[in-house]
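User: quick one, fold this
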Amino acid sequence: MSESDEELVRRSRRGDREAFGELVVRYENRIHATVFRILGNRDDAREFAQDTFLRAFDRLSTFRDGARFSTWLYTIALNVTRSELRRRKARRDRRPLSLEQTEIDPPDGAEAPEEGAGRRELAALALRELDRLDTEAREVVVLRDLEDLSYEEIAGVLGCPPGTVKSRLFRAREELRARLAPLLVNRPRGVDR
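Assistant:
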């Protein structure tokens, strides 16, 4: 039977690096995906996800007993990405998400190649528009719609009430809809409406 996050954190605090390694294995894909979706670059995502785990390891003593490790880890990841976005803005070096950087899982079931291409193109457009949202809006969409965190978990990560999460998510989704509406009028045939 697998140990709980809390037990692994306790062991890690006592210097057990294997226990922390288990936490990394549990969360590395989710943290990497979150960072990638916010920063929009694979290489940066790898680097800043790794930085997230290094910071978590260095700050294990600040983890409050009884708190959820995943919420604490997402908070660190968002702080790392926010710092990077501030640096990029200061340098005016922010690169938009490109089609080559977009990872899209193949659709389930058999479908005609043009349908799969249409879905991939639509997903790429959606990710590009997500990348253009402001940081606050992008974070809440990524955490809820892509990482499937609950409103309460997101509230813990962002440090705000669940009602604020819901209103930010509503505004972010509305902005995405408005940005995508003109693009969807001319979407490829074979993509479900």
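User: anything notable?
Assistant: The chain has two domains: 1-94, 109-193.
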